Automatic annotation (TrEMBL):
Belongs to the GHMP kinase family. IspE subfamily. Pathway: Isoprenoid biosynthesis; isopentenyl diphosphate biosynthesis via DXP pathway; isopentenyl diphosphate from 1-deoxy-D-xylulose 5-phosphate: step 3/6. Catalyzes the phosphorylation of the position 2 hydroxy group of 4-diphosphocytidyl-2C-methyl-D-erythritol. Keywords: ATP-binding, Isoprene biosynthesis, Kinase, Nucleotide-binding, Transferase. The lineage of its organism: Bacteria, Bacillati, Actinomycetota, Actinomycetes, Kitasatosporales. The active site is at residues 25, 152. This is 4-diphosphocytidyl-2-C-methyl-D-erythritol kinase. The gene is ispE. One of its GO terms (biological process) is terpenoid biosynthetic process. It comes from Streptomyces subrutilus. It comes from the Bacteria. Signal peptide: none annotated. Its EC number is 2.7.1.148. ATP binds at residues 110-120. One of its GO terms (molecular function) is ATP binding.
Amino acid sequence: MAGGTDRRTRGPAARAAVTVRVPAKVNVRLAVGAARPDGFHDLANVFLAVSLFDEVTATPADALTVTCEGPDAAEVPLDRTNLAARAAEVLAARAGREPAVHLHIAKRIPVAGGMAGGSADGAAALLACDALWGLDTPRAELLDLCAGLGSDVPFSLVGAAALGTGRGELLTPVDAGTFHWVFAVADGGLSTPAVFREFDRLTAGTDVPEPACGPALLAALAAGDPDALAATLANDLQPAALALRPRLADTLAAGTAAGALAGIVSGSGPTTAFLVRDAAAAAEVAAALAASGTCRATHVASGPVPGATVLP
Ligand code: ATP
């Protein structure tokens, strides 16, 4: 795929098309502080990248265009509000060139599902355009551009497992063994800002503690111990997501009744995440959830997996 025929116009390392594969994330701990004066919340956020992937393909074009395929494609904006398009714009601006690229998103990550699907596409588009345009932007600068696009975007670039602080964008890698998951996709999405507003409403007048992640969770992650991790999974946004979407309680109950070690709302929801002992248990729990009628679809995945990666 290396572009040897068109070097004068696209630079020495430019390519004809670049596809980047990028994972979804689940938060094994999402601790939320009180709203700051700027409206954001300080977070202590332990991310795990899981094997449920979008792919973003960048090809040269006359102008910036976006297309999308997949079961939720109709809900993905194709204009410049798409995070993939915004990523191409910020990278092009930094390089002093036009964002003349076509971005095609093959979408498997649920849309507005609390699994950072838009953020994933933003990180993927950044990496794809960087390779397509032969820019070789230093990793630290790519991470800065990611942080400007959104709090979850830097993690989509680095993947694996990490503790995010600040708005979630200041990342420290953490050790993690492999864990198996089932994800239950709900009908319709939940808006992340709406879930944070509900969190503010539910916690108004209370003393919201500083967000922190305890050592037991980090030890469970490092040990690859699913029982210990199940005992420490926690999401401070879960009461808000359940208040906005009470039927998620039925999905959580169905997953645990089917044998999951623990169930949790993923990020701001409404996807629910079930930690299971192994791949065989994942298949059983996924089948039981599908039969329960409490969700639209299920996905089996494991993690940690690497972040956004250029495919050969
Ligand atoms: P997070 O977990 O980071 O809070 P999310 O997974 O809940 O995010 P997304 O799938 O990122 O939610 O979508 C949130 C909204 O962002 C969508 O409703 C859509 O309007 C918009 N959006 C912009 N770009 C994309 C994209 N590439 N894919 C999906 N949604 C996008």
